Every structure is written in C-alpha cells, then in structure tokens.
Amino acid sequence: MTLQLQTGTAAAAFKMTGGIYTLTTLELHSTNPADITNQLENMTRKAPNFFQQTPVIIAFDQLSPEQPPIDLYQLRHSLQQFGLILIAVRGGQESHKQDAMMAGIPWLPSPRQRDREEDEDSADNVETNVVIMQKSRTTTSPAAEAANQTQTPPVIQKTTLIEHPIRSGQQVYAEGDLVITSPVSSGAELLAGGNIHVYGPLRGRALAGINGNSDARIFCLQFEAELISINGQYKMPSASHNSDPLWGSSVIVSLEEQSLHIKKL
Amino acid sequence: MARIIVVTSGKGGVGKTTTSSSIATGLALKGHRTVVIDFDVGLRNLDLLMGCERRVVYDFVNVINGEAELHQALIRDKRTENLSILPASQTRDKEALTHEGVEKVLNQLAKDFEYIICDSPAGIEHGALMALYFADEAIITTNPEVSSVRDSDRILGILQSKSRRAVENLEPVKEHLLVTRYNPDRVTRGEMLNIQDVEEILAIPLIGVIPESTSVLKASNQGVPVVCNTESDAGQAYNDVVARFLGEDIPHRFLEPAKKGFLQRMFGGIG
User: Fold this and answer.
1) A187–B150 C-beta distance less than 8 A
2) Interface ipTM
3) What's the mean pLDDT in B50-58?
C-alpha cells in the first residue's frame, strides 16, 4: 500500500510518497554499552557482511525503568562499527524521547501506545484500512516519516451513501466504500476505493478497489452491469448476458487469483 | 407564485414541442394564465405548431438583449384566452441565451402568468441547460425505445445536478414522465418497450401516455395544438395529462391495442 501526496504543479521537483518497509529492530534489555557491543560482536562474527548498511530501530519498550540511561551518540557509533545504521528509536521513557530529539534521531511510539491511540480513534468510526495506514506510517523510513509529518492528518475514508438514482452520464467517486440505495442506469459510472453496494439494479459500470485494493467487492441486488472491475481486472457481463444464469439476480463480485468471480448472493 | 415547467427529453424528435404546445393550451383552456417559451433558438418550431408564425415580430433574444420590450414580443394566442407565446429567434444561436437575460425575462413573466412552459431544444448543450435551469417541474418526454429512454435518463441526471434547484440545494425539481408515440400493437409484437419497462428504467412517476396518432402530424401542419382536437386519441390523452398535472386522478388510457370492431372481428375471423 502506498500513499501519495500530490505536490501541486506538474513541474514539481519531487513527489512525496509513503510506503511500508520491513526494518530490523533491536529490542534493548540492557543499557550497558559493553554488553551490547559483545552481543553485536558475536552476531557479526559469523557473517561479517550480513549487516552492512542495515537500517535498524532501537526499541526501549522492553527496557525496565531501573536501567541506567543510555548515551544515544555512543550507541549509534558502536552500531555503525558493525555496519548497522541507527535510523530511529522506539518507545521508552519521556527522557528517551528527548534524547532522541537532541541527537536528531526520529522517535516512534511503541506498538502498545499506538494501539491505545487507535482504540480512541476507532471510537469515531474509523475504518479498518485507515488503522492499517496508521500502523504502516509508524514503521516507515525516517524520510517517509518526515514526509508524513508535513502532511495533513490521514484522510478518513468515510462510506459514501447515495439515495437517489445514478443516471446515464453521471459519475460517482468515493474514496472509501460506496453505497447506493437506488438504481444505477446504464451509462452511469461508479468508482470506489473500497467496496460498492447497490441496493437496486446495477445497469451501469462499477469499478471497485480502484486504488489497488484487491479485497474490494461489488454487491448488487439486480445484476445487469455493463462493466465490473476490481483493482483493474474487468469483465463486461452485458456482452454475453443471454447465456448468463446470474443476469438479473443478486450477486457478489470478488477478485480471486487475478480473475473476477461472480457468485449468487 | 408562477410555476416554471420545462418540457425536455435529451433526444430530438420525440415530441417536446407538440407536448409544450398542447400542455400550454390545455392549461389555458382550464382558465390558467399560461405562457409558453421557445428555447430552441435558431431552429424555432413552436410558432408553427401554435399557428402564429406570421405574427412573430420580436422574439425572446430581442427581449434578452433589450432590443424590445417583453410585451412587444409576447404573442397572444388567437384561439385560446389566457395563453401567450414567446417565440425563439431564428437568426441567432443558442449562445444568445444568457443566464441573467433568461432569469430577467422569467421574473417578468412570473408577475403576469401562473404557468411558464419552457420548450427545450434537443441535446444537453447550452440551450437545453438554459431551458431547464430555472425549472420547478420537468416533463420528461420519452419515446418507448432504448435510445430515447437513455437520453431521458441522461437529462434527468442533468436536472438533478445542474438545475438551479440542485445547485442551490433547494427542493428538487418535480419530475414527470410522459411517454409519447406509444403504439400498443407494436409493443405486443415486441417492437417497442412497454410502459413498465420505461417506468422501471427511469424510476419517475408517469403523468401520461400519448398514443402514436396521425392526428398529431395533422395538428402540427395546421398549426393547431393536438389537444384542441378532442375527437382524436392523442388529443384526449393530452387532456388527461393536463388534468393529472393539475392534481386530478385519472386512469391511464390507450395502453392496450384497440379492440377490433364487430365487422373486423367477423371478417378477421373468417379470413
């Protein structure tokens, strides 16, 4: 999943994007520099080049508060000797956060703190995919993290509900789910980042999961669509509707193994 | 407060001008002060159907441009009291219809008339948009065939998104479906959509069904709205539409193939 922010003019010098990266995390159980160096030495002896240029995150979550404070500059230096590049620190006490700030290292909240924040968020109907986005944000690289900080807070993908008929020539776009309780005429077009529900005849085009969501589905009570598409995979059912036993019935359309499956509801 | 009613369809040749002339005349015959405006600038027809083509001196565009006063351009119908016609210009194009100009004329007309019927040109371009923009109600004229139904669907979408009531978030335009040139025999033979199909696709209330009739062509050639011909089926059907528009509850007629007469049945049976 990527998150893009358009920077306005066509001649922009860069494009801001976000992404998910798998990163090595060192969970500290001790702040003794000698202990840490010893373990690093043991680890790298077997495969000296394995850790070259590896970005790491230092996690303070599991550290007991009684442990003496740690010198982040020194830690960064010793990691560097073994090829590891410290890119961020995670969790810990308020002092750890301040240290990180002083050393110019990004600080990330610990997963447990994050869950708590999310629980509060989901109280106001935040959709699951938004939660995933927030999770991914906290594991992104420092560059992406910095980029995210300059963005406005993540857009909440609300469900769009439309109760009037969608006529020929009309186009409806919803970032999240799209729910329509009226007929969708032929020549009309529905576009949604999430699922599409039509509680009535679907005679036009329906394109779900247009931002790369293969899990999106299309539901309708009367299937007479001109075109259905999930994440770019499309089918034009009306071309062969005379032989289609599902024509006119309630169906669910899903994307499985790169092909569209239409099932009776 | 005057009601502004647009007669529109998207597709051409389905019977918008026939409908405009008959509904305007029908409303006037019932005693309502009515004006019918031709929005088809450049291809004016309404004056022909109303039989007043020789009396056009000034037109709608002249009034918009301030070249004539409204009362100079308005033509009083000779047959029907309470009815006036505002003809279109034949020498201009649709761009002559400006927002402000149309609004000014409609506001002026609203002082003197109860019903303002706007006869829309075909298409979904500027002329049609101007005709429907200020509407309170819309009569969607549709022939029972797929291309006409799709175009009507399109124009309904435009009414719901681009009319003044949609733009200003007011109560939506009241929509009426009028099916014209309906031929029950051809429906039985499967050559035409039936009323239920059209109603189901467009999903708006049906105000009437006008049967295909030779009296319609005759009426437009004579310049007498078909509603005046109370002998004809189309004339009676338009009368029903006007009555329904004014709130009467009248069953729909002319939906079934005409019953054959006694002799036809006799000879049809033998043959």
Assistant:
1) yes
2) 0.77
3) 94
B66 sits in the region (left: phi over 0; alpha: psi -120 to 50; else beta) called: left
Chosen for mutation from A166, A185, A186 (greatest number of chain B CBs closer than 10 Å) is A185
Interface contact A169-B161, CB threshold 8 A: no
Q: Does A188 touch chain B (CB under 8 A)?
A: yes
CA torsion B193-B195-B198-B203 (nearest 10°) is -170
> For the domain that residue A197 is a member of, what is the CATH number?
2.160.20.70
The verdict on B183 touching A (C-beta cutoff 8 Å) is no
* pLDDT at residue A127, as a whole number: 37
Please state, in angstroms and as integers, the Cα–Cα distance from residue A83 to each residue in A28, A80, A212, B106, following that order.
18, 5, 36, 80
pLDDT value for A44? 76
A186 in B contact zone (CB under 8 Å): yes
Domain-terminating residue out of A97, A114, A131: A114
> Is there a single domain that holds both residue A104 and residue A194?
no
Q: Report DSSP state, residue A257.
A: T
- Tens of pLDDT, residue by residue over B79-128, are 999 999 999 998 888 899 999 999 999 999 999 999 999 999 999 999 99
Q: What is the pLDDT of residue A149?
A: 55
Calpha distance A258→A170 (Å, rounded): 29
Inter-chain CB proximity B158 and A169 less than 8 Å:
yes
- B265-269 average pLDDT score: 58
CB B209 within 8 A of CB B141: no
Task: Give CA–CA dist B224/B25, Å, rounded.
Answer: 10
> Looking at CA atoms only, how far is residue B156 from chain A in angstroms?
7
Nearest CA in chain A to B172: A164
pLDDT of amino acid B125: 94
Give per-10-residue mean pLDDT for chain A (265 aa).
Answer: 49 77 80 83 75 83 78 83 84 80 81 55 40 40 53 74 93 95 94 96 95 95 95 85 86 94 93
B 151-180: CB under 8 A from A: 151, 153-154, 156-158, 160-161
Cβ-nearest to B153 among A164, A167, A182: A167
A140 located within any domain: no
In this structure, the answer to whether residues A255 and A166 fall within a common structural domain is yes
Q: Is the pLDDT of residue B268 over 70?
A: no
- The two structure tokens encoding residue B211: 């049967």
What's the pLDDT score for residue A122?
Answer: 45
Domain assignment present for residue A178? The answer is: yes
Phi-psi group of B182: left, alpha or beta (phi > 0 → left; psi -120 to 50 → alpha; rest → beta): beta
Q: Quick one: pLDDT at residue A138?
A: 41
Q: Which of B152, B153, B201 is the mutation pick for testing A, counting most A CBs within 10 A?
A: B153
User: Per the structure, how many domains does chain A have?
Assistant: 2
Q: Which residues contact A46 (CB under 8 A, 6 or more apart)?
A: none
Range of the domain at A51: 19-114
The DSSP secondary-structure symbol of B166 reads: H
Residue B255 has pLDDT above 70, yes or no: yes
